[in-house]
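User: what does the whole thing look like in 3D?
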Amino acid sequence: MRDGVAERKVPGGKFVRVRAYLTDDCSFTDLVVEGDFFAYPPDAIDGLAERVRGKALAESIKAIDEALEGVSLGGVDAKTIRSLVEEAFRKACGNGE
Amino acid sequence: MVRSFRLIMGEWDPWMNMAIDEAVMYARGMGSAPDTVRLYVFSPSAVTIGYFQSLSATVNTELAKGLGVPVVRRISGGGAVYHDEFGEVTYSVVLPEERVPRDFEESFRYLTEAVVRAARKLGLPAKYVPLNDVVVEGRKISGQAQARKKGVVLQHGTFMYATDVDRLASLLTPPAAKLADKGVSSIKERVITASQYLGRRVSKDEVIKAFTEAFEEVLDAEAMPGRLTPLELDLAKSLRWKYSSAEWLRLRP
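Assistant: Here's the predicted 3D structure for the full assembly of 350 residues, as structure tokens:
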């Protein structure tokens, strides 16, 4: 099992931390997005873990993009969440998949 | 003023306070409650954390337990708040979405104007700072959070008139990156209370009067003192179980 954490205080926005949990061969087992941001509907953030479970990075990023489409975010944007997921993944798995 | 809103005041336990805000939001969405402003106190003092926050990364849970300060996860986003029973008033406002700008910043600016006005009535040079703060000379005196469901907006927020800032600073553990972004190294440097700024003990009654008038101005409506309906109370009692459950608190451990 591997894990990686990436965090950012968005300039003029909110604090976001992503925790990625992965198998030894680098597919996601869990993904936690936490911080003091706002999101409607909140279930879209809660549901990200389910969307990426069992997937490698590229597929996961695609699933995250789809999940966040139409979600109203405050203090963070979808691009930042995606980039933190990538960063957390690389901390756990380097560039390998 | 032709419009009115229901004004509910009182002290409840932390779980019930959060449950009531959610119950009023649902009742408003079902059309069985009017536009509502609550001005309330947490008894006992408590910490609330934002819906998306990690419990362990945000609150000194051991200290909170030792001090007998409950920690409750909110339905709204935003950051952690220390609600001091003897130095803080919390407000909540529940309105249909069409009464509030859709854009995040614009909606916070609109509803937080009541906090700014209330603070100014007390003699504080308060201003709104996006996204969800009210500051006095650069130091935070009030933070706001929102939730939206069933076509209804709930905004609730804090106003520190005499909060024990030492206790607040010991209970809340914001990430260093967040404090650095605000140009401070400790949370104590970041916050201020009305009593600190004015150099006198501000009372809860003064704060409640200022907030009542400010909401009347901003909502362009008359405050009608009222109470929760039996439906809202029943709903709140059910929702209180959620707020007091370990599963809800540890949603993000």
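In plain terms: Chain B is about 40% helix and 25% strand. The mean pLDDT of chain B is 96.
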